[in-house]
Amino acid sequence: MNKNITDKFEDILDSLYLFTARPSSIQRESFYGGHVTNNRFHSIKYLLNMPVSETDVEWYFDKQGAELFLAEEAEEFFKPGFYKEYKRRSEEYFETWFELCREMKDHFSDPAKHSSEKTLDLIKKYYAYPFKDDTAFYFGLSVWSFEQKVVPEFEKILKTFFGNNYDSFWQIITAPTQLSDEQKFRIELANLKREYGDDLPDSVLQSTQQKYRYLGIYSPEDYGLDEHYIRKAYQDLNVEQALSITDELAENEKSLEVLRQSCKDKRILEIIDLINFNINFRNQRSEKLSHGFSMLTPFYDYLMDKSGLNRMQVGNVTRDEVVDFFEHGSPLPKRIGHPGMLYSGKISHELTSAEKELFIKKFRSFMAVDEIAGTTAHSGVAKGKVKVIQSMNELEKVEQGDVLVSQFTRPEFMAAIKKAIAIVTNDGGITCHAAIVSRELNKPCIIGTKIATKVLHDGDEVEVDADKGIVRIITKK
Questions:
Q1: What is the pLDDT of residue 331?
Q2: Rounded Cα–Cα distance for residues 155 and 377 (Å)
């Protein structure tokens, strides 16, 4: 317990606002917490991670500091000529990080070969890399600042430039032009289904699962897509639809190039390129993180073996605790679930029971609302029963005509999204995955509600009025 934090905790709560929600993982969250404690986030004084279920955690920042910080980060995008530098460094960052994850995989696949000194050096190297220079920007902050501060300004510029043609041109600019790994997975399944029909051999199933396991990984401690998921995806797959993806993307790219060729304004061209790059990079970034985290499985297996913790418990230790474990032999704490963490200055503070009660009293008043507001990603009105998706394992429960409610969507959600009549998310901006696919599939979609997964429950009947950006609760189950 940190007495300075505890004494002023109520005042700290008054400065916070809900920024986003994510699957729970202190290992992943402490990257951002570390940037607060290392003063990389400049103006941000506090980051609070608060569990809201066994699997999910909310992120709260002090509002004034976060607004200032995101505005500062966004300034880079308004500099002429930034696009090429941004693209190069984004790709360079992930290539370097990916190689570091591969080094971790090779090392911990046979740790007995290596000295304790070499192991400790590698651990420190892995945990230090995201804190070097401006790597935080390319790791994820660029996505947030781009969505919240840059896109609205770029939209104003493009509306003025394109006039009455803006809506049709915006569809072209924000259409993906590159295959995601999830789409490659579906194409591979389609080719397998053409070869084997409905009966996929076990050996082929297993090799496919190993190849694409990483697509289901959000945090380092996740296991990923299992054989059951692969077989279900195979059985449900529409072969022709999956194989048409390449042609659709080629058509998107052709339309974009025609638009680019017709535009002679260099600044407008750079804005178009920045937006389209972020459309593609957002999914690629998530998939690169998933692929990198999948290579850490031997490391987490090693931690479990040496500490006696299970996979979820290992995910709920901090980076400093892992370093102390290797450097000094300090035992890893056995946390049952996410305890709630506050990062401030040089402090990483685990919340007390009293502080959690104060938090609940302040931030849970919204649970009785009958309307939820968000941002329209694609217009339209639809009614249906809610299915709340908190993990990959729950995707199967979505049935035709349901309203899919989730923190955010990812490419792995596509089979469920196609069944849904509408999409509602806690998170996201106009270039997020849910926004893109809702436009492609012509489904009403409301993003950025912050609270949908907490207010809504399976079986609730709702009206998604994406024309107005409102979800109305008709009946509660």
A1: 94
A2: 14
133: left (phi over 0), alpha (psi -120 to 50) or beta: left
Write out pLDDT tens, residues 85-122. 888 888 888 888 889 999 999 999 999 999 999 999 99
pTM of the model: 0.82
Task: Give me the residue spans of the domains in the chain.
Answer: 164-282, 368-475
Q: For the domain 368-475, what is the CATH superfamily, name and number?
A: Phosphohistidine domain (3.50.30.10)
pLDDT over threshold 90, residue 139? no
pLDDT per residue as tens digits for the range 13-50:
888 888 777 777 777 776 666 666 555 556 778 888 88
Q: Are 378 and 439 in contact (CB under 8 A)?
A: yes
